[in-house]
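Structure in, sequence out. Go:
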């Protein structure tokens, strides 16, 4: 069973159980997956679906921050509930120490010695952490390690 099929099955279950929050979150996520499939002209891999889910999670986190700032608690609660639903589908996220450990290995493999070779390290590291870490955090860790 592919990741997309799992999402579709869970959407059917949410519809049957009348779980409006899960239904709304999964429909939006599956719509984003479908749009990407149309753009690339093929079915997406599980890794690509996870990347889309991460974008959906990030969007909801940003919306939640904005709603909190403008004091819209009822809308913020709805966003938080959708965020919880989608977060449950993401793989375990690596912490900063785990990212640093992987980055050190890649730095040794590539022989990178300074910030000028950050692109080389990131190019090798990102496929390894795809779906398990935020790119900004990975970039910060690599920059710190290469800067000494």
């Amino acid at each position: 069973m592919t990741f997309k099929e799992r999402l579709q099955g869970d959407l059917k279950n949410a519809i049957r159980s009348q779980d409006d929050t899960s239904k709304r979150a999964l429909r939006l996520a599956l719509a984003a997956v479908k749009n990407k499939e149309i753009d690339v002209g093929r079915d997406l891999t599980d890794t690509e679906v996870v990347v889309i889910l991460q974008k959906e999670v990030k969007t909801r986190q940003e919306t939640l921050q904005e709603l909190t700032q403008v004091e819209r608690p009822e809308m913020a609660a709805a966003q938080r509930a959708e965020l919880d639903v989608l977060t449950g589908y993401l793989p375990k996220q690596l912490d900063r120490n785990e990212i640093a450990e992987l980055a050190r290995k890649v730095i040794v493999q590539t022989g990178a010695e300074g910030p000028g070779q950050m692109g080389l390290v990131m190019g090798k590291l990102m496929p390894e952490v795809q779906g398990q870490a935020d790119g900004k955090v990975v970039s910060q860790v690599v920059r710190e390690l290469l800067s000494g």
